[in-house]
UniProtKB/TrEMBL annotation:
The keyword Isomerase is assigned to this record: no
GIY-YIG domain location: 240-318
Alphabetical list of Gene3D superfamilies matching this protein: GIY-YIG endonuclease (3.40.1440.10), Ribonuclease H-like superfamily/Ribonuclease H (3.30.420.10)
Gene Ontology terms: biological process: DNA replication; nucleotide-excision repair
Signal peptide start-end: none
Lineage: Bacteria, Bacillati, Actinomycetota, Actinomycetes, Actinomycetales
A cellular component annotation (GO) from this entry: excinuclease repair complex
Protein name: DEDD exnuclease domain-containing protein
Provenance organism: Ancrocorticia populi
Matching CDD domains: DEDDh, GIY-YIG_UvrC_Cho
Key words of the record: Exonuclease, Hydrolase, Nuclease
Listed InterPro entries: DnaQ, GIY-YIG_endonuc, GIY-YIG_endonuc_sf, GIY-YIG_UvrC_Cho, Ribonucl_H, RNaseH-like_sf, RNaseH_sf, UvrABC_protein_C
Length: 585
């Protein structure tokens, strides 16, 4: 059993966090290029267009670790005369291919020669030409294209060699530059052999720049500064497991926190053209090291990432930097209450509050909608139970938008009761009224106002749905759940919306037994005083998403609210995006 202590996010105290129980093998770091099988191919054809021209000759060399392990060569009868200019270029005439096998006989043998292992790379010089003809032939024969990577020595050479070194990037010029043992002759096997030597020279040139594994080939030809590629060495030693990584700046400060199911592979991507975000490129250029924490599960890594972003406030993280700023909407505690947005909601008030909102502006939008619908007062002055002499009402009373409790014009009991019902998640009456209003505005072609009303309704339904899903989690004393993954059963213990620990049920163990030991080893967590006081709402939302996955199973639920949606749930409503709306029945 492996578990993660609740003390996630202690400042770079990696010793306090449980590391993976398995030792990393070299395979975990990706496939080194010396262990990759390269199948270098060259074709001769009747012309340049795959759709209208045919292959006349195959030449392929299979190499691994710098050694040739096989060759494939054959002429092909294209079924049509070979144009004279092709014969002049390649020396292949129509008479030479008369007795040669046709493409239907050659292609299956060639595909068998290539293979389709995950560590196989098909290589060609100007691969667009050769691979284009190969794919056209495979498609015409209704065969399956092998699942292999493709590398183009033309593109790679442009990254490896400068224009001062070679007049151009034709195969003949590169073969002379690289000292190829075979001179290209426009015959397939000779050209393939020359391309092998060019490939080896390219890889030798790009190796010090960080192109050392098969995963690097995909972006090796993209424009990445050499200094950044060299920094790929910072990924060495990072785990091949789920976890959190931190880019460390010159002063030892955390510049960026991220997470991945494979930390090593994700970090290496930052040093390739796969990372095209300007801010991230700037951060990588500044960073001096990368530190990582291995976790038992991807869920644990996501939670640890959030907690560390909150703790370190890294300058290059844009999301999750202030997850604590999530307001709720509730009624004020006074004789004639009004709606207010607050970030200090008590635990006991959650049943009578709507939230958490993603922003204060969203809370304000919903507050205006609910107050308008219920005719609840919106003035901020605290009103006594009995109106004072000389009190005057505002314009909302005259507009029928308020009961006027400030002057005793009417009772606001019905308005308060209506709002309380909405805060509890019962939004049907508001929904019906707003849908009718949207239809009316659309019929009057007042589309801008209709869009505003639609957005207010969407904000209400969104937060009502979030509340319905989150409240069971935030109020549950303990949840123990398990999810079946490829590597086994993942088990999590959650209390009051906070992840307390995770474990993986190893082979031969029973999930309930592992779950019990995990729960007993987790620290005690008292009921929080405030809503979401045990963890930031964003952490609870991460856990909620995991709990609602189809492959997650509950082992224990200690709480009053079930993890389920009511029949009349707000989740059954979807705000229409199109205006005008369809006619109501």
């Amino acid at each position: 059993m492996r578990r993660q202590p609740d003390q996630l996010g202690k400042r770079l105290d990696l010793d306090s966090v449980r590391s993976a129980s398995t030792q990393l093998a070299f395979d975990d770091l990706g496939t080194p290029l010396e262990r990759v099988t390269f199948v270098v191919v060259d074709l001769e054809t009747t012309g340049g267009a795959p759709a209208t021209h045919s292959i006349t000759e195959f030449g392929a060399v299979k190499v691994c670790g710098g050694e040739t392990v096989g060759e494939f060569a054959t002429l092909v009868n294209p079924g049509v005369p070979i144009p004279p200019y092709i014969t002049a270029l390649t020396g292949i005439s129509t008479g030479m291919v008369m007795e040669a096998p046709d493409i239907a006989a050659v292609m299956p043998s060639f595909l068998e020669f290539v293979g389709q292992g995950p560590d196989t790379v098909l290589v060609a010089h100007n691969a667009k030409f050769d691979v284009g003809h190969l794919k056209a032939a495979v498609t015409g024969l209704e065969l399956a294209w092998p699942k292999v990577r493709v590398a183009d020595t033309l593109k790679l050479a442009r990254r490896a060699f400068t224009k001062d070194e070679t007049p151009n990037y034709k195969l003949g010029s590169l073969a002379r530059l690289c000292g190829a043992a075979v001179t290209p002759s426009h015959r397939a096997l000779d050209d393939a052999r020359a391309t092998v030597d060019v490939l080896h020279a390219i890889l030798a040139r790009l190796g010090p720049l960080g192109v050392t594994h098969i995963e690097d080939l995909a972006t090796a030809s993209d424009p990445v500064p050499a200094a950044r590629r060299r920094k790929a060495a910072m990924a060495s030693g990072l785990p091949h497991t789920p976890g959190v990584y931190r880019f460390i700046g010159p002063g030892g400060d955390v510049m960026y926190v991220g997470t991945s199911i494979n930390v090593y592979k994700r970090v290496r991507q930052y040093f390739t053209a796969a990372e095209n975000r300007k801010r991230m490129a700037e951060m990588v250029d500044i960073a001096e090291s990368v530190q990582a924490t291995s976790t038992a599960t991807a869920l644990e890594a996501s939670v640890l990432e959030l907690r560390e972003i909150t703790e370190f406030d890294p300058p290059y993280n844009r999301r999750s930097r202030h997850p604590e700023k999530r307001p709720w909407l509730t009624l004020t505690d006074e004789p004639h209450p009004r709606l207010k947005a607050t970030r200090g909601l008590s635990f006991d008030q959650m049943d009578a509050a709507l939230g958490p909102f993603s922003s204060l502006s969203q809370a304000k939008r919903v507050s205006e909608l609910v107050s308008d619908f219920a005719n609840l007062r919106t003035c901020t002055k605290k009103l006594p139970e009995t109106p004072s002499q000389g009190a005057a009402a505002c314009h909302l009373l005259a507009m029928g938008k308020c009961a006027g409790p400030c002057i005793g014009a009417g009772s606001d009991t019905a308005a308060v009761s209506c709002v309380q019902d909405i805060l509890a998640g019962n939004c049907d009456t508001v929904w019906d009224a707003q849908i009718e209003r949207l239809s009316m505005l659309a019929s009057q072609e007042r589309f801008e106002q209709a869009a505003t009303e639609r957005d207010r309704l969407a904000a209400l339904m969104s937060v009502a749905q979030r509340r319905e899903r989150l409240l069971p989690l935030l109020t549950a004393r303990e949840i123990i759940a398990t999810a079946r993954e490829k590597h086994g059963w993942e088990i999590s213990v959650i209390r009051y919306g906070r992840l307390m620990g995770t474990a993986i049920c190893e082979k031969g163990e029973e999930p309930p037994d592992v779950a019990q030991r995990l729960a007993e080893s987790c620290p005690v967590l008292q009921r929080p005083e405030t809503a979401g006081g045990a963890a930031h709402i964003e952490e609870s939302e991460i856990l909620l998403k995991w709990l609602w996955r189809p492959n997650t199973r509950l082992l224990k639920w200690d709480g009053e609210r079930p993890l389920a949606l009511a029949r009349r749930s707000p989740a059954r409503r979807q705000v229409p995006r199109q205006i005008p709306l369809p006619a109501l029945n």
